[in-house]
Amino acid sequence: MTPKLTDPALEYLLQSAGLTLTEAEKADLKSVHDGLAAMKARVRQKRGHMAELAHSYGFTPEDLA
């Protein structure tokens, strides 16, 4: 389970970064936190050579299957 971004944790992170945000901006940050956590989980997976198509040439039919 992905940890939730609590108000105290958000306040600590903002204070550590030296940022001052409005309540609306804080609410926006909290609303995207879960989506960012899910995106990080998808990105941090093993990938084969076919993941970087711009850097590979000469595909065989087996590569594209």
Overview of the structural elements:
With 65 residues, the protein is mainly α. Helices cover 55% and strands 0% of the residues. The chain is built from three helices and no strands. It has helices spanning 7-17, 23-43, 61-64. The longest helix is centred in the middle third of the chain and has 21 residues, at 23-43. The radius of gyration is 19 Å and the shape is elongated. The two termini are 34 Å apart.
Q: Major sheet: size, sense and barrel closure?
A: none
Q: Give the N-terminus to C-terminus distance in angstroms.
A: 34 Å
Coarse morphology: elongated
Provide the gyration radius in Å. Answer: 19 Å
Helix-strand sequence? HHH
Helix content: 55-70%
Which structural category fits the helices and strands?
mainly alpha
Task: Tally the beta strands.
Answer: 0
Round the mean pLDDT to the nearest integer and report it: 83
What are the low-pLDDT stretches, counting only 5+ consecutive residues below 50? none
| Percent in strands | under 5%
Number of helices: 3
